[in-house]
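Per reviewer request, we include the raw input and output of the structure prediction for the construct analysed in the revised manuscript.
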Amino acid sequence: MLYNSAGQLMAKEKVMSGFQTFDIMYLKPGAYFLTITDKEKVTVQKFVKI
């Protein structure tokens, strides 16, 4: 799931394999949080689009 800095859900995709790409061209510049959840853990990665 992809959230903006205000906590709004921007995108949600189900990943069936170990590799996934996201098209971020439509996103406005700003800070975003990518949340990846699997059976054992939750990983959050912050990135900034300029």
